[in-house]
Amino acid sequence: MLRKGITESFGAAIHGLSTAHLTDGVISRSKRMILDTLGVGLLGTRTSVFNKVLQYSQSFTSEDSSTVWGKSSLDLPPYFAAFVNGVAVHSMDFDDTWHPATHPSGAVLPALLALAESLPQQPSGLDLLLAFNVGIEVQGRLMRFSREAFNIPERFHPPSVVGVMGSAAASAKLLGLSPAQCSHALAIAASSAGAPLANAATQTKPLHVGNATRRGLEAAQLAHMGIEGNPAILDMDSGFGVYYKDYHPSSMAGFASGDLKWVLEGQDVAFKRIPAHLGMHWVVDAALEARAQLENTVGSFDLDQIRRITLRVPPSKYIDCPSPSTEHQARHSFQFNACSALLDNRVTVSSYCDADRNRPALKRLLTKVEVETPEGNQPSFDNMYSEVELETHQGLRFLARCNTFYGHWRKPLSQEDLVEKFRGHASSVLSTEGVEGVTDVVGNIEKVKNSSILGLYLRRTSSQHEQMCRPRENT
User: Fold this and answer.
1) Where's the MmgE/PrpD N-terminal domain (predicted)?
2) Average pLDDT of 15-24?
3) The domain defined by 6-265 carries CATH number 1.20.200.10
C-alpha cells in the first residue's frame, strides 16, 4: 500500500534543517563521534585491506582531489577518497555502533570531508557539523521504520543500507540541494544499498562502509546534476521497504515548527574499547571478571586449572565462531575474545594479529569452550548480556556477568578516555602537531571558519610512520 508524503518530508527536512536546529547535546555527542571516527580511521590506514583499496583507487584521477587520511602527499578524487577513508574506519571493526544496530559515523564523515575539500567555497565547521548530523539523523529515523532493525542483524549489514542513505542526505545538505533533489538523492542511494551479512568476518566487510559513504556521495552529486529516482522511495514496500520484513515508515516532521527532536539526543552511540564486533565487549568484560575471581580465590591464574569455559550469550550465528582462522573471524568470535581475555587479562589491537591468535595456549583454551544461548538473552545491543563461567578440575566455579560494558551508551566513555583513545590511535600515524591539531579543530568545530583545516592536520604524518613497514593483516 502506497503511503504518501514520507519521502517528500525527508527531502524537505534535509533541505530545511539549519544550524539553529542544533542543540548543545547533539553538538557535544556528534563531536565525540567525529573524533573517534578519525582516530580509528587513522589507525585503519595501517591495515592490509586499506592499502589494497588504496592501491586500487590510485588508478583513478580527476580535476578535483581530496585528502587521504594519514597520507602527507597523496590525494584522490573525492569519490575514491571517501571510499578508502571509509574502508579505513571499519577495517578493524573499531568504529562507533548505534541502536538500532549500525555504524553511523563511518558512512557519513568520509564523504563529507572529501566533498567539503572539493567545493569552490569551503564550508565552515558548523556547516560540516550540521551536514554530519543530518546524515546521522536520517539513519536513525530509517532504522526506526522496522522492529527487525532493533536486533543484531541476520541478513544484511546495516551500514550498507541505512549508511548509504545517511551519506546521501549529508552530502545533499552540504551541496545545498533543493527539497526535490534531496528526495532524489535518497532514491538514487537506495539503488546502491545492501550487502549480505555472509561477508561479515572477511576483508570485504570494511568495504560495506567504504561503499556506503562513497555511493551516498555519488547519489547526491548525481541528483545535483538532475538525475531523478522514485520520489516516493521511502513510502513504498517495493522501495526502501524491501530491506525489512516489517516496514512501517513515518514522516520526518517538526523542523519547520521548531519541534524537531534529534534521534541522537535521545539515543547515544557506543564507543568501542577493543577492535571487534560490539557484542564482544560484553563477553570480554565478563571473562576478565571471572578470571579475577579465580585468581583472587586460588592466588594465581593457571590455564591448566580450567576444565570448562561456558559462555552464555545471545543467539547470533555470525558472531559464534569457535575456531577463527583469520583476524576478521576473530573479531566476530565470542569464543576467541573470551579466551584472549582470560589468557592475557586484556584484549588489545595486537590480540588479533597472527602471532597472538595462533598461540598454542590460546588454541587449548578454545577447545574448552561451550556456548549456551539462554532464551531470555535477546540479540539486541540494548538488552543483551554475557556470562562467563569457569569450572576448574578441582570443582570450583566462578561466574561473572556483564549487562553493560564501559563504552556502551548506558555507561559512556568519559571525555578524557575518548580523547586518550583518539590520541593513542592517531599518534601511530600523525605527528604530535597533527594529533593535537585534529583534537583542537574537532573540539571547537562549531567555531571553525574553514573546515579544510581539518584535512591539513590529517596529512601531518610523523617521519617514523612514513618510513615504517605496515603491519601484516591475516587474509
Assistant:
1) 10-244
2) 95
3) no
Q: Identify the CATH number of the domain defined by range 278-402.
A: 3.30.1330.120
- Residue partners of 45: CB distance under 8 A and separation at least 6: 51, 68, 69, 70, 71, 88, 429
Q: Which three cell numbers stand for residue 276?
A: 571487534
Angle CA 219–223–229, to nearest 5: 85
Of 412, 473, 146, 409, the C-alpha closest to 268 is: 409
Whether the Cβ atoms of residue 329 and residue 203 lie closer than 8 Å to each other: no
Q: How far apart are CA 163 and CA 153, in angstroms?
A: 14
Average pLDDT score over residue span 44-53: 97
- Judged by DSSP in three states, 410 sits in coil
Residue 188 predicted with pLDDT over 90: yes
pLDDT per residue as tens digits for the range 87-134: 999 999 999 999 999 999 999 999 999 999 999 999 999 999 999 999
* Of 136, 131, 156, nearest in space to 146 by CA: 156
pLDDT in tens, 338-369: 999 999 999 999 999 999 999 999 999 999 99
CA 98 to each of CA 110, 211, 272, 430: distance values in angstroms, whole numbers, following the listed order: 18, 19, 11, 28
Q: One-letter amino acid identity for 427?
A: S
Domain boundaries, the chain: 6-265, 278-402
